[in-house]
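User: hey, got a sec? need Carbamoyl-phosphate synthase subunit L folded
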Amino acid sequence: MSIAEKLPSILIANRGEIACRVIRTASRLGLRTIAVYSEADAEALFVQMADEAYPIGPAPARESYLDAGKILAVAKQAGAACIHPGYGFLSENADFAEACAQAGIVFVGPPASAIRAMGLKDAAKALVEQANVPVVPGYHGAEQGVDFLSKEAQRIGYPVLIKAVAGGGGKGMRRVDRPEDFADALTSAQREGQSAFGDARVLVEKYVLSPRHVEIQVFGDSHGNVVHLYERDCSLQRRHQKVIEEAPAPGMIDEVRAAMGKAATEAAKAVGYVGAGTVEFIADGRDGLRPDGFWFMEMNTRLQVEHPVTEAITGLDLVELQLQVAAGEPLGFSQADVKATGHAVEARLYAEDPEKGFLPSTGKLWALQFPESEGIRIDTGVEAGDMVTPFYDPMIAKIIAHGATRTEALDRLGAALGDTVVAGPRTNLAFLKRLTEAQGFREGPFDTGFIERNSAALGAQPQPLDAAAVAAAALQLEEERQLAGLMQAAERADGEARSPWLDADAFSLMPRPALGLPLLVDGVRVEAQIEWHEEGARVSLPGHEIDEGEHEIALAQAERGTWLALHRGRQTSVALFDPFSVDLDAAAGSGGIIKAPMHGKLIALFVSAGDAVVKGQRLAIVEAMKMEHVLVAPRDGTVSEVAGEPGAQVAEGAKVVVLGE
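Assistant: Yep! Here you go:
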């Protein structure tokens, strides 16, 4: 019997890119696909792709995608034979896996017992130690008091890493270098762990210097077979979140691969693992990868975000394998049958602003265009016109490149990033492009601290005004004004004069006087000058030199007469300056108004009106997309106004605190 005969229908208990990914393979195999969606995702791409789709509640995940009861109710109503949880949300929830089994619905993943055994980092470390798998020194016990954990950190030796026991994706993780910073870091990690996973418990580990993050993809079936599908290197990280992943790992040697593969498969066998899973290791990268220089970190009992690089080098469809195993079939191949061809690299394209500390960015995708190039695969869950909301992970797409060599794969990835167009929310597109070109990453050695050490060179700080982008948008704005004036004049039949700004020779080839054009560029007032010559119009920006290189500038129109200029992956917002509709304080760059950097919830407020503060002092914390963002005082002063209160939702750019002299 085929997979579709055994599992004729599948409900995808997820959203976005991974939901689209699962639907594609399931549809190819002939399964009826069923989507569930929140109110925020009613028009989403994955909803359109599915054969059937059912609403499950409001936008907040806890009221929709994390509500197991609602999802199971839909599964029963729709007659789903199986449920694929994707990654995140309920994918590693043992109770949900168990409830599926009790309802007679196949859970496409490991048994609940394996999820429980590996789901908590502290218990997982204790378990794999019994299987002789090396673990990082640390405290993995139940005591959670700040005084006790602080003493444990002293015993382990700084720097240490605080990690939420139920964590993942970098959430609930804090590196601490000094004893005096431990208490605040612990509180923040516990709060983030509770918010993201409903569990505030943490463990404390020794922070490995020059760490490499290398993980092994494992696969097991219900017949006792367990294999690994080579390794992935995920060392390019920011705040413990993966940015670029690749397979195989650079510098990997057969002896280390064999040792890691054996440790990973032994860990999987120890819990009776079935399905796709990833065993993550931390390696000491100071002297290259060594058989005695890696330690177990955790096991992710689900499909990983970066699974496409494994698919690229092995030629396997991991979602198809998941469904095959869920249908009760054996894997059908042994470890010796697994071969790797070439090299693959994946970049995660996010709606975030590298120039502002990688703060999440939301809004409408006015333009979205990906290249169709050799060796390039695009996994996305959005299309032009969609909204990036503050409720979920801000991933726009995964861009995967495969080549015969690592250099070829990186070249292809860099070229694909250069040909990608995203207009609307700020993105890390230019940052990713620079990463693919960074000599230290290409030639190595590199570790998980590479991005932090090279953040300035990678553009992860405020950048100068992009004069070329502004000039291109200014010309577009002026053309709009001229066309609007001509249309206005044509509609008048009473002989009235045309609008005062419209030049009678607007579209003639005769020279015209220079025109001053007041603009608002990324919220800042800028004066542009337009001069007309026989060969066309030319824009100048006093005080700025315009780079007239060969880099193409893409333009996308946003609402309210705003144009978004995309130059080398970086976006510049340009609009005509209107003094009656602009926040003059913001346009002037006032340092006294501390605003919410993104749409989110104000979860903590540390000051009141009248308080004296010093530069760098914490004022408030805004939570967005399950991550905390601290607002600090830009200078010394006295708080003159507090505009928010804990628990309230705040819009991007909303005033939170006003700082007087």
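Quick note: The radius of gyration is 27 Å. Let me know if you need anything else on Carbamoyl-phosphate synthase subunit L.
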